Amino acid sequence: MLTAITALYRCFYDKELWSDVALRWRGAAIGFMVLLCLLATAISTASGFAMWQGVGRQATSLILDQLPSQFTMTLDPDGNLSSSLPQPTEIKVPDGDIRSSTPLDSKGETVILMDVGETLQSIQEKLRERKAMIYVVRDGIYARQTNNATDRVIRFNEMLKQDKVKSADQSEGLQPTTYTLTRDQIDAFINVVIFWILAAILPLFLFLGGAIKLPILALLFMLVGVVMIRMMRMELGNQALWRLAVVALAPATILEAVVQSVAAFTLDPAQAAQFGSFPIFALVTGLYLYGMLRQLRQAPGQG
After folding, report:
1. pTM beyond 0.70
2. What is the pLDDT of residue 300?
3. CA distance 77 to 97
4. DSSP class per residue in 95-159
5. Can you count the helices (H) and strands (E) in the chain?
6. pLDDT 10s digits, 75-107
7. In what order do the strands lie in the sheet with 70-75?
8. Where are the beta strands (DSSP E) in the chain?
């Protein structure tokens, strides 16, 4: 295990390691691949947080800039909503080319339509005329998922039945609840939601992606190595060649993760997302694999 850990940095320069990988590593290549995947995941997670939180902040600001700094939302005992906002209120994707930096990919599209003079039933009848991603109406929220899927509905009266919001005097029953909201409060809430979503799924997603990608790339470069050893007129077993291909992937994998992390912390999220070039990745890996094979050719006891 110690050898596999030190190999994460020795693979960049240590010619003795390259020979050792082919001749003596045997099952250690699997452990090395797992460590490589964990290291790349740790580096990429930090950059992923920075990049996607930046995307989330940009998308959030596009929406919040269209709202007043403070407004109220009141929910009465029957589950009917009223608001201090002018009705109807439409929040749209602003004009301009923002498609590369936020999830809002259609300028001029209505993201949220609030009209407390409407109901869920009446708004559904007008979907063809007034398309939005989210409808906030008097008795609930109507969220369009896709053009073909069933839309999701949240009814305020059902929420009240579950919450059982009552005044101190139980005989008075349910009382109207007024929420005073500010842009800062909404922004803070959305940022917390984005953080926990990323914390829950990003590391797992990156690790699984690496666990799938690295073995496939190792097999691909093993085939490249077959061509190389024939050109170099070497004899080398497939297992040794596969181990060399795994270690040859490490420098490009680590460098790619570091470069993407630096880009995520220093560039616009849209620019950072474009970092990563497979041709450069393949070139670096191919050069390392070729160097390893040349070193092995010169080493005694190749097999």
Report:
1. no
2. 57
3. 44
4. SSS-TTTSS--STT-EEEEEETTS-HHHHHHTTTTS--SEEEETTEEEE---SSSPPEEEEHHHH
5. 9, 8
6. 787 778 888 888 888 888 766 544 444 444 455
7. 81-83, 70-75, 177-182
8. 70-75, 81-83, 89-92, 110-115, 134-137, 140-143, 152-155, 177-182
